[in-house]
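Sample log: Olfactory receptor.
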Amino acid sequence: SDNTLSATFFLTGIPGMEDSHIWIAISFCVMYLVALAGNTSLILVIVTSNTLHEPMYLFLCLLSLTDLALGSTTVPKTLAILWLHAGEISFNGCLAQMFCVHSVYALESSVLLAMAFDRYVAICKPLRYTTILNHGVIGRISFLGLFRSITVVSPFIFLLKRLPYCGHRVMAHTYCEHMGIARLACASITVNVVYGLTVALLAMGLDSILIAISYGFILHAVFHLPSHDARHKALSTCGSHLGVILVFYIPAFFSFLTHRFGRHRVPKHVHIFLANLYVLVPPVLNPIIYGARTKEIRGQLLRMLRLRKDLV
């Protein structure tokens, strides 16, 4: 209805933890700044060094871009709510934020799948690596990921716009997400629940199954590698990638499952706190896991810093 579209929603932050809002905001702010610095430097290192224009690093660059988007769609508003009590957000602004959060999240899932495919080709089909993963293919994979995330998340907007809200405007959360908005409606939200589940299973669920399958092949191949060194090298790049995957999927699945099944068992503040961690933790840890564990990136970063020092 028209009055909903011009309505203002209020985000309250983390209910029951109002006394610690300032401290929570400080830690979120620090994490966000670390994420900004880490991902920006990763992108700079990869873009500026020709030696790192391989598929693995190009996907990593894409991962950093999605991480920057993931943090930036939620954290600034979250800090405004926790620090300045600036919880008002227009209905359309809320839908826009919800759209960005979910589509960037789905995109990050497809980037992780692409990275698993990249490791699979590198380890299981090493001689055909450059022909299989040429720049055209990387471009198409990236475009497909973007197209998929926009396509599956767009219906959320229409599903939320058709609901009546009867003056329920206060959302106990730090950012707008699909089920959070839907629960304010004073009508049946079965369609939203079913479609939300479907998207989660088709996007995240399918991606994580495909990633697991590709890792099955990868590990099988790694343990059949002749030299100990080759095995060690393959396991270490896969190790950092697996770390990134776990950091991304575990909080997401936990949050998703508590939303669907444990709503009355899991305290609300725990749930909302987790929802913040799953948009903050991957952007903070990904550059650290990859930057610290990848010799080439470490080397380039040190070289860049040394150059800066010489110029100064």
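Observation: The first strand starts at residue 8 and ends at 11.
Observation: The chain has one domain: 10-310.
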